[in-house]
Amino acid sequence: MSQNKGIRNVKYLKKVIISSDVYAVCIEHALTNESQEIMGLLVGEIDQIECVTTIHACIILHRSDKRRDRVEISPEQLCNASIQAEKLCSILDRRVQIVGWYHSHPHITINPSVVDIRTQSTYQLMDPLFVGLIFSVFTYNKLMHDHRVEVICFQADPDEEKVDVPLIINNSPMKLCNLEAICNLPKILIEEEVESHNITNNDTKDPITKLHNEACKTLAVTHIVSKLSRPLCEALIERLNATKLRIKELQAIKNKLTR
């Protein structure tokens, strides 16, 4: 779709279609950190003629810089993500590529910041149909007395203003690659914690400080295991049991129809 901004002719997405399992992975990732932003990349297909992007998978990245108001990815991570996206072509049996990025806004609104829009503009230099998703998590609704999860799909225009893009969630079964992404999430978070604490320990020679840092690292890893790994395992076991029950029910229906 073409829109005019002054004398410039800019191409924007008409809509973005995301599979329900990718949507679930993104939310699961966003809910892992209440104080810092998280980030990942979206893999899918772009219809250049209809200006429609379909998202089939996501790649959870190891953060090189962790802050409350921003997150950065190293060039090495982007390179590895591109290689991973190429491998997904054979797994998904589709010609997929990196089509967008997502990150979280813990305790703040879904509206993209100036930095977010500037980052989006940079990505659109590579592909004008590159898309961004923001998940707002841990936002308390005083009226309903509950926490809400919201999402926005956007692009940036040449004047670095937000361009809203309709987002459609397509109900689909869990793909193996997205199931593996969820299962690998605790491992990635633990690697981030270990790397962060190791850097801190290398900067000090005081044995008491080193001991304190090691204790903090152990506490952080334990927190990930108890708050994420264990509930995740329990949820996957319940999902497996539900799937087995559904298979049994369908087998009974098949036998009845055969008779």
TrEMBL record:
<dbReference type="InterPro" id="IPR037518">
    <property type="entry name" value="MPN"/>
</dbReference>
<dbReference type="InterPro" id="IPR050242">
    <property type="entry name" value="JAMM_MPN+_peptidase_M67A"/>
</dbReference>
<dbReference type="InterPro" id="IPR000555">
    <property type="entry name" value="JAMM/MPN+_dom"/>
</dbReference>
<protein>
    <recommendedName>
        <fullName>MPN domain-containing protein</fullName>
    </recommendedName>
</protein>
<dbReference type="GO" id="GO:0008237">
    <property type="term" value="F:metallopeptidase activity"/>
</dbReference>
<dbReference type="InterPro" id="IPR040749">
    <property type="entry name" value="BRCC36_C"/>
</dbReference>
<dbReference type="Pfam" id="PF18110">
    <property type="entry name" value="BRCC36_C"/>
</dbReference>
<dbReference type="Pfam" id="PF01398">
    <property type="entry name" value="JAB"/>
</dbReference>
<feature type="domain" description="MPN">
    <location>
        <begin position="16"/>
        <end position="154"/>
    </location>
</feature>
